[in-house]
Amino acid sequence: MRHILANMGSFRFMLGFASGMLVMCVGYFSTIAFSGKHDGITHHETLRKINYSTKPVKNSTLQFISLITRNASPSTNAPSSTNAPSATNTPSATNISHALLNQNKVNICRLTKSSDRCNGLPESVSSIAFMGDSNIFRLTHTYAQNQNETCLVISSRCDFKYFVPSYDSQVSKLRWIPPRQGIEGPLANGLENPGCHDCYGCDGLQCGANIIYYPIEFARDVMMQSSMYNSTQQAMSDYLAKHPVQLCIVNTGIHDLAIPFFTDSQYTTNVNDYIRLLTGCKQIAWQHTLSVKDSPLHPQTNARIRTWNSLIESHPEIMAKLSFIIDAHVLSTSYNYDDNVHPETAFHLHSSRNIYPKLRK
Which domain holds residue 266? Predict the structure, then answer.
């Protein structure tokens, strides 16, 4: 009997030891996945690069190849906004076709099928800025194609000097303050390499004289810190104020969705603070976050995207700063996806031809 009890005790010890080791291993590899210490950068885009250093982007459709890897999803135990509506309460656009709604004097254009148009937007603009992640980068390039403009790369993943001429990445690394968990980016490459974007497909673009793309993948992040600015949003908005444009197309969401413990209310707080800075935009068109493929391996889900899009429309301070909202979430579901977060190029080609104002020359 004593031998049996002794063996049972040994078994319990070994089982406890094995469980402990398993927890340690899971924690270790979760940390690696979050920090991006592997070939696949956490949730951020990798696309085939064209040699942008000295050559313009050719006026043809870019071939994009994106590698999305699993990131630490927002924890189910993370705090959430008590005022955030559930996905089931999110206003549906599926029964609205070719519709322009007006809320707080903001034209809301809902696009559900390819024949829909945004008649509330101006027919033409003298200048336009696109601000966002790699989906907005793709939109900028296809829009420039349709306007017969050639795009030049003006900033790279770790070089922001076009927007901030005094920026010194080496000096900034010495005084860099890391992001606060659950509040702001970066998450991966920008966390390991201060002064760099997380996004690999977000080079700044100047297309002709009056089309510009600002690489801003979060509503709040500390990638572009310097002695003058605490955040990327401050630095970019300062440049914009010195180079104002008639219309700004703005979105963040896909990258924000990957921030662990990030609440719905924090998202709207960040967006509100960001939009407030955009004084260089005569008019602002908020682009609702597009649909995703809903892969269970990724933190971006359509249910949460619909909630966030709804929260933007129900936030009076944000709405007071906007002139337009472009809601192509439903429309994007009718296209294929290159990966979990990128609709195929055909979607951007259609959007750039049929939704946005022409460039007045």
Answer: 45-359
